[in-house]
Design brief:
single chain, globular, YbaK protein, alpha/beta, 25% helix
């Protein structure tokens, strides 16, 4: 049995139902669409975690379906900022404690303002990274949003 990640431990400590899923990943294809396919789930129900920097607000976290693109104007508006830019992948580990392809909205180094695409309300469960590549956790989205203090917003193109 694989060792529990910090993200999974935090979700379980909060008494949320969490099903872990493991899959083979490819270093050359860390896309969320690959994860959705490997899990056999519709891409609308698998969420990727993106980290961006606002001019005024600093670091913000956005969770959106893997089949969608983050609309930076909508992201800035949700965060109450004039503009938003995705951080460079080299900054990810230092800011969050996670690497590309394994970034979870749960258990980052610091508590950043977090936003979930409003479509999370449509699903009984969603899959998000469990904090490492090839490892997803399936959770009830509104409980997860509450756990991380996420605000729901229209975030995608």
């Amino acid at each position: 049995m694989a060792k529990k990640t910090n993200a999974v431990r935090l979700v379980e400590q909060a008494k949320l139902t969490c099903r872990e899923h493991f899959y083979e990943y490819d270093e050359n294809d860390l896309s969320g669409l690959h994860a959705a396919e490997a899990l056999g789930r519709p891409p609308e129900e698998v969420f990727k975690t993106l980290v961006a920097r606002g001019a005024k607000t600093g670091i913000n976290v956005f969770c959106i379906p893997v089949c969608c693109e983050l609309d930076l104007k909508k992201a800035a508006k949700a965060a109450g900022d004039k503009n938003m830019e995705l951080i460079h992948v080299k900054e990810l580990l230092g800011l969050t404690g996670y690497i590309r392809g394994g970034c979870s909205p749960v258990g980052m180094k610091k508590k950043y303002p977090t936003y979930f695409d409003e479509t999370v309300e449509l699903y009984d469960t969603i899959a998000v990274s469990a904090g490492e590549r090839g490892h997803q956790m399936e959770v009830e989205p509104m409980a997860l949003a509450e756990l991380v203090g996420a605000v729901l917003a229209d975030l995608t193109v």
